[in-house]
Amino acid sequence: MKRKPNPAQDQQDSSFALPDTVLIGIDWADKVHAWHCVDPDGNVSYGELDQTPLRIQQWIASIKQRWPEATIEICIETSRGAVINALLEYDVVLYPINPNALSNYRGSHAHGGGKTDPVDARLIFKFLAERRSELRPLIQNSPLTRELAALSRDRRKLVEQRVKLSNELKATLKTYFPAALELKPAKMYADFMVSFLLKFSSLTAAQKAGATKLRKHFFGVGAKAKAQSRVDLLCNAKPLTTDPVVISTCGLQVESICSMLGNLNRAIRKYDRRLKELVVTHSDYEIVAHLPGASTKTQARMIAALGDDRSRYENTASFQSAAGIAPLTTQSGKQRYVSSRWACSKFMKQTFHEYAGLSISRCRWAKAFYEAKINAGKTPQAAKRALAYKWMRIIFRCWQDGVRYDDNRYMQRLKRNGSPLAAVLFPATESTRQQPNAAV
């Protein structure tokens, strides 16, 4: 839908004109983007832009031809995608905005809730014009940081697919082949389990193969220690059902699931190898290399979460809020609520929350902190979130100062500051005078 001329609106928009600056709002779509522009002379233009490299190049070139010295500033409701990748090829300033922010802004202009692409393009332009001083331009991280971020994000998606398929596999086995679950794999997607079910998709097939073939199979997949007990279990198991239809259809489903799990296992290992190769070459690797409990994958995710721009976050609180670890306080009159923060980067939140859990078994003070929260009545998830909040403060400071984390140094600092954790970490000095209001 093309926007109809509206002289009153155009006159209003022209008042936002800035010298030597072209302001543009883009409402992106899959194939065609609506745009709204005001040039330095206050001229208002608008139209549609096809999502093709040639068309975008021609559009940018036409603007630069008319205003060669002007800065092109573009506001758009996304931070990544095809249109962002295309625009980053040119000398333009991009302002990505949160969809929720635009939704609230739209609601203040159109109470009825109606919207069209051209109208949204104009609203995005106005959002840029009115709040330009508050917006942060998109600053690209280095190629290495972006590759680590993309690999970590894509790997996580594969892991989530694997978890979903593993749950489906377990549910299917329960309906016709529960003996397979008695093999007790560490994970349902374990290679030995996948290869076993691809070869013996039912109890009938396993018992028909016989003890010798089963033992040979388990030996071949590196499961020698428990091979004989597993062979005995399978050979002596009783079938849950003898219905040929159930066995046939469920067996085919299990084979299909295991085939996909095998491919996912190989793909995830490939991602792991690539992450391991790259993360040690990053300039910020030393900052995260000595975090207790952090694997190569966690280190890569932290580097990606922090990025390269040290001025990206004003302070630790803004960093914790962006990750969703900091709680959200809502107060109105005498009522005050504290709740979890949902408007955040879920992948970033997941990264630090999971790391907090990993650190408990590898870091003395983290374990003491976690246990103190549990003893205070917190749930395990709340205790881990509180620990993640504390870890983010530490990691942010290390990142800002460009120094690596030192566990012993931090524990000595807790002791000097009189933290209640010091009594647990240094029991011999429990009688040492502590500050009366020291926080855990």
Overview of the molecule:
The structure is a single chain. The chain has helices at 7-14, 53-66, 82-87, 99-109, 117-131, 143-176, 191-199, 203-220, 227-236, 244-279, 285-289, 296-306, 316-323, 346-359, 364-375, 380-401, 407-416, 422-425, and strands at residues 21-27, 32-38, 44-50, 71-76, 93-96, 328-332, 335-339. The protein is built from 18 helices and 7 strands. A 5-stranded mixed β-sheet has the order 3-2-1-4-5. The chain has a two-stranded antiparallel sheet with strand order 6-7. By secondary structure, it is α/β, with parallel strands linked by helices.
Annotation keywords:
440 residues; alpha/beta; 5-stranded mixed beta sheet; two-stranded antiparallel ribbon; 18 helices; disordered C terminus
Which overall shape is indicated by the principal axes computed on the Cα atoms? globular
Helix-residue proportion: 55-70%
- The radius of gyration over CA amounts to 29 Å
Percent strand equals 5-15%
Please provide the count of β strands.
7
Structure summarized in a few sentences:
The chain is an alpha/beta fold.
Topology (elements, then pairings):
Blueprint: H1 7-14, E1 21-27, E2 32-38, E3 44-50, H2 53-66, E4 71-76, H3 82-87, E5 93-96, H4 99-109, H5 117-131, H6 143-176, H7 191-199, H8 203-220, H9 227-236, H10 244-279, H11 285-289, H12 296-306, H13 316-323, E6 328-332, E7 335-339, H14 346-359, H15 364-375, H16 380-401, H17 407-416, H18 422-425
Parallel strand pairs: 1-4, 4-5
Antiparallel strand pairs: 1-2, 2-3, 6-7
